[in-house]
Amino acid sequence: MINSKVENHPVDLDRHTLQLFDATPVPMFCSSVTGDLEKINPALIQFLGFQQDEIHLPDFMIYHQDKFKLDKTTLDSLNADSSFPVVIETKYEHSSGAILSAQLTVVPQLNNSGEIIRYISQIVTSAVENKKSDQLQLASLVYAKSSEGMMITDKDGVIVDVNSSFTKITGYLKEDVCGKNARILSSGQQDDLFYKLMWNRINTSGHWKGELWNRKKNGIVYPVIISINTDFDKQGKVNKRVALFSDLTDIKAKERQIFKQAYYDTITGLPNRALFIERLNHIINLTKSKENSIALMLLDLDGFKEVNDTLGHEAGDELLKLTAERLLLCVKENGDVARLGGDEFTIILHDIKLLENTVKNILKKLAQPYSLENEEIYITGSIGITLFPDDSDQVSGLLKSADQAMYAVKKQGRNGFSYFTHSMHQEALDRLSSINELREGIEKQQFILHYQPIVKLANNEISKAEALVRWLHPEKGIVSPDQFIPIAEETGLIIEIGRWVVNEALQQVYVWRETVKENFQLSINESPLQFKSDENSFNNWFAYLEKLDLPGESVSIEITENLLMDFSESVDMKMQKFKDANIQISLDDFGTGYASLSYLKRFDIEFLKIDKSYVQSMEQDKDVLILCESIIQMAHKLDIQVIAEGIETQQQLDILKSLDCDYGQGYLFSRPLPVDEFELLISGSFIGAHGTPYV
Ligand code: C2E
Ligand code: CA
Ligand code: CA
Question: Is 648 in the pocket of ligand 1 (CB under 6 A)?
Fold first, then answer.
């Protein structure tokens, strides 16, 4: 557009004419006798879409120089008859690129001799045209300043102009792309059909709007939302096309992040419950039509809580992450793995032929050691399996049956898998009614305590007993704790039951210390859950002891080994409080849990109870005998007294005595008894194992 520099020549117009020339709102210019542009007025600058202060007049002369050159025909007709102005319909280009129609009137200026010394031209546009020009100015401003990328192409898609945002977004400068086909921007991510449909729409309606992937100058592919409009000429033919677009990279990234937060588990990166349900629903809908089966597995880690409690939450999180990795390795592309929450994972397996192998593989992989916090951790899994559509054709139904199957595995001792069966459904219903009955039992106080003597083996003395709870069920009669304690623990109802047991047992020991023996001691079983319950139910202990004015030694608390493995602060704190109150501690069921003798010193323990399974196989199994002997010796070295549980035969008793065991408990001495029978026993009316009365 820029040709050469011409001066805004100092033209020898008289002063008045010059004033008029500069002040008139009519665009005017002067030309030399050869028709070349000599001078333009401010109105013309404005007319062409520039600001006065934007342009130095002399420089401005270079603009459209050729456009303002008077052509030969005009000059000829003016030269032929200088008394007539020439009027021509003409067009000028606005700075925005728009074409302005105008009427040009050219008159010659004569000197005193009547010779033409220059031509003066004025441009007239209609009011409508003027308004258009204002709008164009506005449009050009929008075009230049918009944050949207803009691109103008000709009818063939060749780029004629772009704005600065275009450059910002695409990285292409104006000169990189002008004259090139707009295809230069495309990424090749959309197929031919996509473009075919797009052009179809543009050709029929003139516009199109949608999202697509383009490529930047630096090669990066990015998403845009783009709208394309067409400018038609008077004949209805395509004049230009204007494309407006915005970069969606940031918006898409945010969308992705929001999607990730809503649908993925942050610890393992696996789909979460919401996405799992969506996927399963989708698969069910797809599968319904094809009539083949899929399998849903529900996996619950065994002992995850212990890891969390002993090694801390970070280690727990790490374990979940490693588990997720192992599951993904086992399932590969044959299914979908998700984490439902806690230590529960689900696997949707698309091909049930692979089921048996996959399940076994998962259990094998899970059982391999995990190294966490410099320790080797072993963990197993319980897997419930349900089949679609055999067991249910609904997401909720499948989840329920997988859960029931998983529960069955837990009940059978964990580390395994089980298919859902309809009897499980019945069991689940039974379980639910048991929970309700148990709740009712608590409300109606249907519990009693039985007492089993703990006999001092050296002299047959009974100054200790274990309080064992029973449920007096209105229909079933006496229900053993093995049948309701597990449910009570799962549901948390154990807290209420435990509170009742403590109150009842303390009241009883108070009476017996008054009436039978002043040093009498009762052992009370505390489920690990009670150690983790809130302060209130825990403080119940001390409040009650104080109320009855009982010393701490009047009770002993029986805890299980697993509590020794729990390194949480609240357990430590509570154990310490018991010690401070002089309450003695017995380690129950020794040998059945995970703790080794090395853990014994963690808490200050007075008694260790050898589990009845050891006592009862001692006679047949030499190894067990040796084990019992070393347990007793080790305990004594640690200043801990040993109670043998479940003594049923004289032979067992004799062996234990020979091993220097301190106390014995079992049917050989007495079953757990109701209060009145127990009182008869310790009052001496019962005859002991040796034919001698208990003392
Ligand atoms: P445990 O603490 O190991 O209690 C000893 C169990 O062994 C009692 O079963 C007792 O009746 C039984 N037993 C005693 N001598 C013999 C014997 O010579 N041979 C055989 N085969 N068994 C014998 P019980 O009363 O059915 O209690 C079962 C379990 O329920 C208890 O095991 C204890 O873990 C739990 N439990 C009982 N009462 C309570 C309680 O008040 N609170 C809590 N948290 N748990 C309790
Ligand atoms: Ca016990
Ligand atoms: Ca026991």
Answer: yes
